[in-house]
Amino acid sequence: MHPYTKSLKLFFEQHTNPLNATPMKKYMRDQFEYLGIKSPQVTALLREFIKSNGLPPFEKLDLISRELWSLPEREFQYIAMNLIEKYEKKLEPKFIETLEYLITTKSWWDTVDLLAGHPVGVMFKKYPKVKEKYLKKWRKSENIWLRRTTLLFQLGYKKETDFDLMSEIIKENLGTNEFFINKAIGWALRQYAHTNPVPVKKFVKATKELNPLSRREALKNIGA
Fold it and tell me: Is 158 in contact with 140 (CB distance < 8 Å)?
């Protein structure tokens, strides 16, 4: 284990709170163990740790992220994502392989959505060839979390959203009963509707096969 990872692990383990850990684990359907450190405290403690120890070496970000991901307590995955986000603008094309690994390992909405909306979105905007290669691959994947990522990576794009692309990816996922796909379709449409509601309304009206959940989510803030 890299010394930075080891120091982070020991520091956060000192703040374990079993009283919080049980309900946090239950909220996530008992899929992950928890130290019992709630999100605001994770952020505050990480800030404190970085103040004393600095950020991890950029060239070791891949290794440290994967090591944190391997630890059983969910907080360490949140810490990994926080560190990645701090280096977002410096990420190099090869790091997409790390992001793919993180998306498909210990997968659940709490990690996948942040990875999709932040580092993946940033990298796809910055590196068109990476976007072309991995979108093509992920759109065809049987892994629902990779497909969910293709639906959500434009969440922060606003006026730069490629709505035609979003529409194509949505249509590829119609007809599924998978909750996390149908929810993501609605969320992507709802988010873009804040910027440009007219095409979203037209798309929802024209797409009869749209799942009721997706439809409700898409129109939540703009009405039918």
Answer: no
Phi, psi at 4, each rounded to 5° = -65, -45
DSSP class of 57: P
In sequence order, the β-bridge partners of residue 21 are none
**Exposure pattern of 138-154 as b/e (b: 16+ CB <10 Å)?**
bbeeeebbbbbbbbbbb
CA-based end-to-end distance of the chain: 54
Mean of pLDDT values over 202-208: 96
Q: What percent of the chain has pLDDT over 70?
A: 99
User: CATH number of the domain at 1-90, please?
Assistant: 1.25.10.90
Alpha-carbon distance of 70 to 62, in angstroms, equals 12
- C-alpha distances (whole Å) from 75 to each of 17, 42, 70, 114, 201 are 12, 7, 11, 14, 39
| pLDDT score of 222 | 82
Backbone angles phi, psi at 153, to 5 degrees: -65, -20
Q: Are 82 and 43 in contact (CB under 8 A)?
A: yes
- Per-residue pLDDT of 107-155, as tens digits, reads 999 999 999 999 999 999 999 999 999 999 999 999 999 999 999 999 9
Tokens 């120890």 correspond to what residue?
53
Residue 74 to residue 63: CA distance in whole angstroms = 18
CA–CA gap between residue 45 and residue 49 (Å, rounded): 6
